[in-house]
Design goal:
The chain is mostly helical. Helix content is 56%, strand content 3%. The protein has 16 helices and three strands. The protein has a three-stranded antiparallel sheet. Helix 7 (165-174) crosses helix 8. It is globular. One of its GO terms (molecular function) is citrate synthase activity. Keywords: Transferase, Tricarboxylic acid cycle. Residues 1-19 have a biased composition (Polar residues).
């Protein structure tokens, strides 16, 4: 990994170099060579490559290699990475015992967080390494598929060495060799969401890594951040919204009522993109092919919502984001709603670990300032004199 991350100097007491903003909006906290999000033009770049080219032409394994090593692999390097992935698709007995003990009602995102933490406790020592990043990334689908089958009263399945990352995930969930169409759709989804600049979960992981903690702790923290509905927890809520709308005929009245009453439209708007999210563009076309009936409903809602938003909130640049069509695509490959965000994590772990490795390659503790807004110079009153 090239040392491409450098921390900005902390402001000195009394400095006004950077004023506090809600959510750190507009504040540059680090430099990175991993990915670039161009919000005004709607572009996403991984290590110099446009996301559209990668989503249409590469496997998730190739993109993970790109994020970790800074370049696309040749045939031999890709073969070696796939072999390493296959070798790492195991669950230690201690972790399996914990997964078996979790109640069936446990949310899959919580099960994933627990499994990663337990695996880190028995398998991880020392400074984060590329081998640890590969081991974690290979195991995410195994942890999730194992829990999914356990909570349904089914026996967990052993991964198949001949299947790739996306195909193995679907096989371990269902017990059936997935169709090429489903593998292609899930693979493209995994490529599209593998990294996205300094988002909340990536920043969280980098903060933990900057303290010289281990890679499992940093990834567990990132999982916790991704779980929130303002970050990665929205795809299932998009599905809930479309289900509540119910039909194309009901869409316009539902959307108008939602907007006028202040209800949030799930899957619309993005903190960075002021135009169409490029990932949503790719997912829209994949959803069109994967499930034409569901796509018709989703597309109608999208078009109506954008028109009504422009009418009722002129000047607001709100477009569908990656989560909107993620819901349709993941449902089309057989995933239940509560598996959407964990599957997001299956993709994003490659980006998280790439950022963690970049952070430790040229580390400086991430320790920003806070602008104090509380009282000053209060007179201290002993306990016995307080009323």
């Amino acid at each position: 990994m090239s040392p491409s991350m450098s921390e900005h100097n902390s402001p000195q007491p009394g400095s006004t170099a950077q004023s506090a903003k809600g959510g750190l909006e507009g504040i540059v906290a680090a430099t990175t060579g991993i990915s670039k999000v161009e919000g005004q033009t709607g572009r996403l770049i991984y290590r110099g490559y446009n996301i559209h080219d990668l989503a249409r032409s590469t496997t998730y394994e190739e993109v993970a290699y790109l994020l970790w090593f800074g370049r696309l692999p040749n045939a031999q390097e890709l073969k070696q990475l796939k072999e390493q992935f296959a070798a790492e698709r195991t669950i230690p007995e201690e972790v399996m015992t914990i997964l078996e003990a979790l109640p069936a009602a446990t949310a899959p995102m919580d099960a994933l967080r627990t499994a990663v933490s337990a695996w880190g406790a028995v398998a991880i020592q020392g400074t984060p390494t590329i081998d640890q990043a590969i081991a974690l990334t290979a195991r995410f689908p195994v942890f999730l598929a194992t829990f999914e089958r356990l909570r349904k009263g089914k026996k967990p399945l052993t991964p198949l060495a001949e299947l790739g990352h996306a195909a193995n995930y679907l096989y371990m969930l269902t017990g059936q060799i997935p169709s090429e169409e489903h593998v292609r759709g899930l693979n493209s989804y995994l490529v599209l969401l593998a990294d996205h600049g300094m988002n909340a979960s990536t920043f969280t992981g980098r903060i933990v890594a900057s303290t010289e903690s281990d890679i499992a702790s940093a990834v567990v923290a990132a999982i916790g951040a991704l779980k929130g509905p303002l970050h990665g927890g929205a795809p299932a809520l998009v599905q809930d919204m479309l289900r509540e709308i119910g039909s194309v005929e009901n869409a316009e009245s539902w959307i108008r009522n939602a907007i006028t009453s202040g209800k949030k439209l799930m899957g619309f708007g993005h903190r960075v993109y002021k135009t169409t999210d490029p990932r949503a563009e790719e997912l829209r076309e994949m959803a069109r092919v994967a499930d034409p009936d569901s796509f018709k409903m989703a597309r109608t809602v999208e078009e109506l919502a954008l028109a009504i938003l422009q009418e009722l909130k002129p000047g607001r640049k709100l477009y569908t984001n990656v989560e909107y069509y993620s819901a349709a695509l993941m449902a089309s490959v057989g995933l239940s709603g509560d598996m959407f965000t964990p599957t997001f994590a299956v993709s994003r772990v490659a980006g998280w670990t790439a950022h963690i490795l970049e952070q430790v390659s040229n580390n400086r503790l991430i320790r920003p300032e806070a602008e104090y807004t509380g009282p000053m110079d209060l007179h201290f009153v002993p306990l016995e004199q307080r009323s």
